[in-house]
Amino acid sequence: MNNDAKKKCADLFAAAFAKCLAESFATATGAQWPLEVKETPDAIGNKGTPVHFRLTVEGVLSGECFAEFYESQIADLVNKAAQQQGTTPPEEPGDALTTFVASAMEGLSTCISSKFGAVTVKVERVAGLAFGGMLVVPIAATQEQTNLQVLLYFGAPLLEALCAGTEGGRSCEVNASTVLPKNLKLVMDVELNVTLRFGQRQMPLREVLELASGSVVELDRMVDEPVELLLDGKLIARGEAVVVDGNYGLRVTEIPQPVTSHFLN
Closest Cα to residue 139, out of 14, 27, 45, 54? Predict the structure, then answer.
């Protein structure tokens, strides 16, 4: 199999990894961290101390690859996660990153298993590695204000197993929100109306007609339950109501699924 074919097989795995990692980051920080596979790495993007993880694939596939982060780039991520959780940022950002990467492995295992059969992906932090001769696939954040690049280095056994499994033309189904299409980027400045919903209730027409000043309508949500943020009637986030400069606002605490999926599905 030629190098282009190997690169395509590695890209499929990398796209699944990017999707699951982005979801883990979103859960930890309460904000979106969209990631996409790039053709070539940013030569000047990674500076400082590297943080390495070994991803070990076991089951009907076997092999390993390595994920490379840099502390200088993950500091913002770790700080936002600490702010979201109301804790003090750790002195060692890599410790918090280990938790985020580990939480993404369940989703990655599910995605890979949907194609090849029963597979588990385990992760461990490692150090003192050199990656000469390995196939590298870069993953980077799509938000311009976020400087984050992850490099995936593929070992030969895993790469060969991935290629053998995709020779039939099948591919691991990856949520389309992982790779942000260029067409969607063209409309990023379009303004959309979103609605904050504290609750709802179905009422017979008779009760609606009887409404008058002073009437109380009981909703289906308790006062301590999160309120919902809707886009065109679709739930995109949950959170708690706040007051900002005299106006109602929403502090987001949960994003059920990547927002881009509402546009792409």
Answer: 14
